[in-house]
Amino acid sequence: MDFGEVSDLLQRLGIALGLGLIVGLQRERSGSPMGGFRTFPLAALFGSICGLLAVELNGWILAAGMVVVGALLVMANVEHRERDAGLTTEIAMLLMFVIGAFVMVGPISIAVITGGTLAVLLHFKPEMHSIARRLEDPDFRAIMQFVLITLVILPILPNQKFGPYQVLNPHKIWLMVVLIVGISLGAYIIYKFFGQKAGTLAGGILGGLISSTATTVSYARRTGKAPEAAGLAALVIMVASTIVFARVLIIIGASAPHFLGVAAGPIGTVLGGLAVVCTVLWWLSTKEKAELPEQGNPSELKAALIFAGLYAVVLLAAAWAKATFGTQGLFVVAILSGLTDMDAITLSLADMVNQKQIEPRTGWRLILVAAMSNLVFKGATVAALGSRKLLGRIVVLFAIALALSLAVILFWRV
């Protein structure tokens, strides 16, 4: 064994020892009688030696080591077992042994991530229990429905193209559903915990991540009955409409990372400009806090199926328009699709950029056109449902957003 091999082994043993010390320190501070600052690093080193011997001699050595650790835990349980105590420390000890063995035979980065995750999970036990207790039945149902959408439906869908223009891939379409529902569900969970305590800006941000259109409708209706709330409503609607551009960038980054490098500049410019407008508006507005209206569960299977159908229609419409009228036809599709939904057209255009059917500079311009169409639709919603005072403010604010978007479309050089 040369110096390089010895150095690598010592490095791996040191990493196993360090991970064991971190987890052991956490267990020591928690007052666990089953193991602490010395026991966990010893278990990690024992696993490392067993893993090394298993590679050099026989794999049964590793299994025997696991049996020994398990037997020691059983013996310790007989002496220290408390009524209604959990198995957290025991499982952590076994996992620490396995991590120690894995350090010797696998990628170090995976072992470090696993060990660090173990320490974090152990440390945040009170916070995790608090979250579990605060989840109500509708919240848990939302999470389980997301599991259904992600882990049950997605794997069984065929991953091949069907239909006209060969653009309908059930697996890929549903993967985009998972992406959109995941973003909305994350914001929905945050809303359930903090929505009623969120300030105006935070309320607008959550509203934009869940649904800017629904937020616009809710606040417009509110001012129809209480015109004095127009200032607050205008701010929340504007913040939610600004966050749409951030949501678009998130979607592009997740579905077409190389496209993001081109789209981030112009779309980010519009986002930044509108963020400045929102900040100024916030300073000028009332300090009253906004309470988000009750939000619907974004992981409902019906809503997911509706979005999947809408996305499929947009895919077909975009392919047909491109084949029939060229790039100019896509602007009509972007305007029509953007009226009520930005996600479907954004995903469709990102896919077309991925397939090299359109240039990235055309793709982000089409997305901005769809966003302008979406603003017009929300403005019409305010006109139909809101007070005249709110409409006056929204006309000015949305005019700024439309002018900024149009300027970027016309004058951005990339």
Descriptive notes:
The chain is built from 16 helices and no strands. It has 414 residues and is mainly α. The longest helix has 28 residues, at 3-30. It is elongated.
Summarize the structure.
This protein is mostly helical and 414 residues long.
* Global structural class: mainly alpha
The average pLDDT score comes to: 86
Shape field: elongated
Q: What's the helical proportion of residues?
A: over 70%
Spatial gap, N to C terminus: 57 Å
Please supply descriptive tags for the structure shown above.
single chain, 414 residues, 0% strand, mainly alpha, elongated
List the topology elements.
Elements: H1 3-30, H2 39-56, H3 60-80, H4 88-105, H5 108-123, H6 125-134, H7 137-156, H8 170-194, H9 200-225, H10 230-255, H11 257-284, H12 301-325, H13 327-338, H14 343-354, H15 360-385, H16 388-411
